[in-house]
Amino acid sequence: MISVMDGHSVTLQTNTEIQKEDLLMWKFGAEKSLIAEINAEAGSFNTYDVPDGRFRDRLELDKKTGSLTITNTTTEHAGLYLITISGKTVTEYRFNVTVYDDVFCCDSTEVVIRLALSALVGLATVVVLVYDIRPRRSRHHSNNREQREVQTNSRRTGVHAAFNCQGPPRGHTSDM
């Protein structure tokens, strides 16, 4: 099964190379309507439309491989495609094509814009986090530095600070 999004192109690959005696016939649907034909010996390469006009100006044939490209697909292009390659041997390939309409999707320009905006938002988030964490670390480091300085000075002078961050020292009573 081959899936394609509405409005996009799909190529049905034959994975072969046309030989000079080959006759290729592409057919579509349960009715097996002829939509493309290659007669290598006569040098003719033709695409045909079906009565409802769904393939008008949408079919392209690869003249080397016989692959069929359907451009600007719609849900009308979903269905069974059959290619018969007749030459020294007869080979058939079947392709079941589904066309889906992604109402939440967008064109390629909008996708690029959305990706760029997402990247910028992600980058801005990282910058904010880094600058938010950095001041906290520096405050934490400066508090530790001040505590070390108080301890160092108290060792030198023999005077201990009456209060630290945790409250009064043990054994200290309040005069209130």
TrEMBL record:
Superkingdom of this protein's organism: Eukaryota
Record keywords, A-Z: Membrane, Transmembrane, Transmembrane helix
Bilayer-spanning residue ranges: 111-131
InterPro entries on file: Ig-like_dom_sf, Ig-like_fold
Region of interest (Disordered), residue spans: 139-176
Entries under PANTHER family matching the protein: CD48 ANTIGEN-RELATED (PTHR21063:SF4), LFA-3 (PTHR21063)
Record protein name field: Immunoglobulin subtype domain-containing protein
Upper lineage: Eukaryota, Metazoa, Chordata, Craniata, Vertebrata
